[in-house]
Write a structure and sequence with these properties.
This protein has a domain at 73-179: Arc Repressor Mutant, subunit A (Orthogonal Bundle), CATH 1.10.10.10. Helix 1 (2-14) crosses helix 2 and helix 4 (93-107) packs across helix 7. 72% of the residues lie in helices and 5% in strands. By secondary structure, the protein is mostly helical. It is globular, with a radius of gyration of 37 Å. It holds the Pfam family MarR_2. Residues 16-36 have a biased composition (Basic residues).
């Protein structure tokens, strides 16, 4: 009997897989289920509606994130266009932004004052004075007193500034109109409403950024 036990131990030591197979055969095994007949657990089935609700909630967020990313990319390309244009005409970036604001105000029949321009560009009084001096020396604007209130000064565009503004906005406008051709008026109206909200949100973020940190 000792010899048999010794031989069995020797075999098990040299052939461990035999021991694992024999151990597996001796274990009690429950009834096997066919894979196709497996039923999800109650926890999984209860979580499924919640996962679907969560997926539906995240879809609008993903669409908004895509739009925000596109707006960031648009800002990068617009900044690049402004930089290229200003370098080609020997202007500062702030000078071009000032010309754009003055031109837009003049088109709407409301000439800007130096204070209004300073607020639009977030410039100090000293920086605004230096800016207007550069634009005057370049022959782009002139400061005129209001006929009704001599204390009020208007910024009026000169022909050279109008030509500069047209040279800046016309090529960009042509490319944008070409891009809009594939959309109908209803789609463009929806896009316009979106851009109005985008402008308001961006202005609000800029106003918050200007607030002093407590």
């Amino acid at each position: 009997m000792r010899q048999i036990y010794s031989n069995t131990c020797t075999i098990d030591r040299h052939f461990p897989e035999r021991r694992r197979r024999s151990f597996g055969r001796n274990r009690a095994v429950g009834p096997r289920r066919h894979p196709s007949r497996s039923v999800p657990s109650r926890k999984y089935s209860s979580e499924e509606p919640r996962a679907l609700r969560r997926a539906r909630q995240t879809e609008p967020v993903r669409a908004a994130d895509t739009l925000i990313d596109l707006l960031r990319r648009f800002n990068v390309e617009a900044d690049r266009f402004v930089d290229v244009f200003t370098r080609a005409h020997g202007l500062h970036r702030t000078d071009m932004n000032a010309v754009a604001h003055i031109w837009r105000a003049a088109e709407h029949g409301h000439p800007l004052t130096p204070g209004e321009l300073a607020r639009m560009l977030s410039l100090s009084p000293a920086a605004t004075t230096a800016l207007l001096g550069r634009l005057e020396r370049a022959g782009h604007i002139e400061r005129n007193h209001d006929t009704a209130d001599r204390r009020r000064v208007h910024l009026d565009m000169l022909p050279s500034a109008r030509a500069l503004a047209l040279a800046f906005f016309t090529p960009l406008g042509e490319h944008l109109r070409s891009a809009f051709d594939e959309f109908d008026d209803k789609e463009l109206e929806t896009a316009s409403r979106v851009m109005e909200k985008v402008l308001a949100a961006t202005a609000a973020a800029a106003d918050e950024a200007e607030e002093p940190v407590p």
